[in-house]
Design goal:
Blueprint lengths: L3 H27 L6 H15 L8 H23 L4 H20 L10 E2 L19 H23 L2 H18 L4 H27 L1 E2 L6 H14 L4 H18 L2 H4 L6 H15 L7 H5 L32
Antiparallel strand pairs: 1-2
């Protein structure tokens, strides 16, 4: 049986991995750098907490759709207003909307202000008088988180191999060329944006169930930056990179916060974490997913006999084979 600490740590990693997958869909697969992803995470966490009375748990049949639906509705509004822009303008608009959501919960009594609010009872799933499982049991919640992560990973892998996935790859590579080919790119980008928000809200929903407490800091831009670092650490363009990045970020954080290992210097864990991230990015530019190739010495190097034909264009460089989506 897994001990309490390791069970909590495993759930934390899986929830952050689910959150990272939501952003990977936007950044790594569609080329949309969103700096407001934490807003959707926070909405999912706050909705389930606000819907749960202090006397009994809310119905899971109502709480989960409400949390995901609220994030989807907010993402639909933000997407319609921001997706017509590109580059830094898109980043700033999503950041602005996320900060608006942050201050709604931080500066009002809706979410308990800066102190946050407690989730006293987890949602209950019932079919009549029968309760299939009890989320108040840590091991049951662990398997529920695992199932959500596995289902999301498989679902995204299938999506990226579909026609929609190929369209998103084309948008990332060259959106203007996609438009010239007759594709209306806005519906695809908006669909990816809303789906990404729903997945982030699911992660926030599970986070609230795990911790039993939420505060406005989970909607802050710092958290959006942290999840962006996770997918960069893991390797952009790879779904498994989001999983690796979330695990590496969480484990490094836990390591450097350990007073048993670093004593009083553990209070400076952000410094050590920052240096570690810089080192990983510098020595592994493709992220952790590129580590096996790096260790195996399989990095591409120009062959000596090719030096005489410098400047020549190989036939393979001009071929137009379809892009391979990485999982």
């Amino acid at each position: 049986m897994i001990s309490g600490f390791y069970l909590e740590l495993a759930m934390k990693i899986m929830i952050l991995a689910l959150f990272a997958l939501s952003l990977e869909l936007l950044v790594g697969q569609t080329g949309l750098v969103c700096f407001g992803q934490a807003a959707f995470f926070g909405i999912g966490a706050y909705v389930v907490t606000l819907m749960s009375p202090q006397s009994e748990g809310a119905s899971l049949w109502l709480a989960l759709p409400a949390a995901l639906g609220a994030a989807a509705l907010f993402a639909l509004v933000v997407g319609l207003l921001s997706l017509r822009t590109q580059g830094v303008y898109f980043i700033m608009i999503t950041l602005a909307f996320a900060q608006m959501a942050y201050f709604v919960f931080h500066d009002t009594d809706l979410g308990g202000g800066s102190d946050g609010i407690y989730l006293y009872f987890r949602p209950v799933l019932k079919l009549g008088d029968w309760q299939p499982f009890d989320l108040d049991k840590p091991i049951t919640l662990y398997y529920a988180v695992w199932a959500c992560l596995a289902g999301t990973f498989v679902g995204l892998a299938v999506l990226l191999q579909s026609r929609t996935g190929r369209a998103l790859a084309g948008i990332k590579a060259n959106e203007q060329r996609m438009r010239a080919a007759g594709f209306s790119t806005l519906p695809y980008k908006l669909g990816a944006f809303v789906l990404s928000a729903v997945l982030a809200a699911l992660a926030g929903f599970l986070f609230a169930l795990k911790d039993g407490f939420v505060n406005p800091e989970i909607l802050s831009w710092h958290f959006s930056g942290a999840v962006l670092i996770m997918i960069i650490l893991g390797g952009l363009g790879h779904l498994r990179g989001a999983l690796l990045g979330a695990a590496a970020f969480t484990l490094l954080q836990e390591l450097f916060q350990s007073q048993a290992l670093f004593g009083s210097f553990a209070k400076h864990w952000q410094l050590m974490l920052g240096l570690s991230i810089i080192a990983i990015v510098a020595f592994m530019p493709k992220g952790l997913v590129g580590l096996p190739a790096l260790l195996g010495g399989r990095r591409a190097r120009p062959a000596p006999e090719d030096s005489a034909s410098f400047g020549a264009t190989p036939a393979s460089a001009t071929s137009h084979s379809p892009e391979v989506r990485h999982v």
